[in-house]
Amino acid sequence: MDVLPLALELRRIVIAEVIGGFHGQAQLGRWWLPSGVLADGEQPGERAAAIAREQLGLELEGLVVVGCRAEQVGGAPHLALVFAGAVAGGEPAPGAPVTGFAARTLAELPDQVGFYHRDVIEVLAARYERLRA
Fold first, then answer.
1. What CA–CA distance (Å, rounded) separates 65 from 6?
2. Phi and psi dihedrals of 129, rounded to 5?
3. Could you tell me which of 119, 56, 113, 45 has the C-alpha nearest to residue 82?
4. How far is the CA of 133 from the CAs of 48, 53, 56, 130, in angstroms?
5. Radius of gyration over alpha carbons of the chain, in Å?
6. Is the peptide bond before 5 cis (omega within 30 degrees of 0)?
7. Mean pLDDT throughout 16-33?
């Protein structure tokens, strides 16, 4: 299972730049949500926080599940669990495989962010806002 943290800061989404794409999916462009694989016995929320810390250098708080998605990646089935949380600190610094990142408003996001269209990310961010209200 893949775990993806959706990092929100002042109504902006932090997206990762990954040259060559995650999972060898370069055709989906260079902008992605940070991503990692859940290990046996690992808690998904803890993994989402660790991914944000390892790949973006950011600490997240208030993580909640906002969606899931099943995809075929490299011929193998992948289930992605998407968490959203607010940036609560840390020193922004990309970590492998991330080569850079950007904080963008929904209107500034590219049409495609990895496997996710901007419209889907908008729905996920709105779910986070409703759940946190």
1. 10
2. -60, -45
3. 45
4. 21, 25, 26, 5
5. 13
6. no
7. 81
Smallest Cα–Cα separation from 1: which of 49, 63, 85, 73?
73
Retrieve residue 46's tokens: 């803890």
Cα separation, 90 vs 14, in Å, equals: 13
Phi/psi for 41 (5° steps) reads 80, -5
Q: Using one digit for the tens of pLDDT, what is the confidence trace for 86-131?
A: 999 998 899 988 999 999 999 999 999 988 899 999 999 999 999 9
Whether the predicted model's global pTM rises above the 0.85 cut: yes
Cα distances from 92 to residues 28, 89, 105, in angstroms, run 24, 9, 18
3-state class (DSSP) for residue 76? strand
